[in-house]
Every structure is written in structure tokens, then in C-alpha cells.
Amino acid sequence: MDYVAGFFDGEVCFTIAICQGKRNRRLVISPRITITQSDASNNVLETIVAFLNMGRIYYHTRSRVTKTGYIIKEVTLRIHRIAELRKLTELLKNRLIVKKHQLELFTESLELIRNRRRNIRRLYEISNELCPRRKNTRKWTMARLEDVLKLYQK
What we know:
This protein is an alpha+beta fold. It has helices at 2-11, 42-52, 82-92, 100-114, 120-130, 142-153; strands at 13-20, 27-38, 56-65, 71-79. It has a single domain (2-153), classed as Endonuclease I-creI (Roll), CATH 3.10.28.10. α3 runs antiparallel to α4. The radius of gyration is 17 Å and the shape is globular.
């Protein structure tokens, strides 16, 4: 488990997506853990999935070509089921060093979702803190989120 924890500490991305559902226009909160590697490293991710018995692997190709003329092929491990996320955060709890704070924030978000206290504003803050580079490129600004929340209060 220590190897897996070390790998996660270096490569994992904790994400909380907040969007509006397509069918019923409800607010959807989607926490997930992802690791993306080059296609050459797919056996490492497959071994981790088998060891943890959770998650799913997706194979995809980027649409751009590198300087050497090769198309970039990637493999992504994605864990998005709430039960699996809770189990994994518990396993990683005392093992992460570099991403310890991110794990704590992610665990807090899972608790907010679990307790049905969907504090959307706090989840939005956590989401921005987990992915600060994407903060200014998000479709969902706090103002838009406030507008959607007003619809639910009516």
C-alpha cells in the first residue's frame, strides 16, 4: 500500500466538478480522483486498479501532435464512486505528504456531500482550492452559482 500511496502522492488529481444536469437542470456535484499517464505506463495503473479493486481505466488520444511527430496516447485512472472515494481517502489518510492538504479538503467535501448538507459555496471554494489554475477558466463563477441557488430556494 505504501507504493500506491507514494504514487498517488506524486500523480493524483483531486477534483470536484460542479455543473448543471442536462436533463433536469439540477445542480450536480461530482467528486473524483484521477491519474493520467502516458500509454506506456498503463501496466502501472492496471496493477493499481487490481490491487485497490476500485476505479476504471480510460484510454484516449490527444488531438495534438508532438514536436517529434507522434500523437500523444494517454491512459487515465478515474475513481468517481462515492463509496470507493471514501474508502480510498481513508486508506491514504496518513500516507500522503505532498498532497496531504488536498486530501483533507477532498475528504471534507465528501463529508459535506454525505451529510446531505450540500453547502454549495464551501464545495465551490474547495473546488477552486484543489485546482487553482482552472479557477479563472471555469464556466461556473460564484455569481452564476448564486443565481442557480436562488432558483432552488423559490
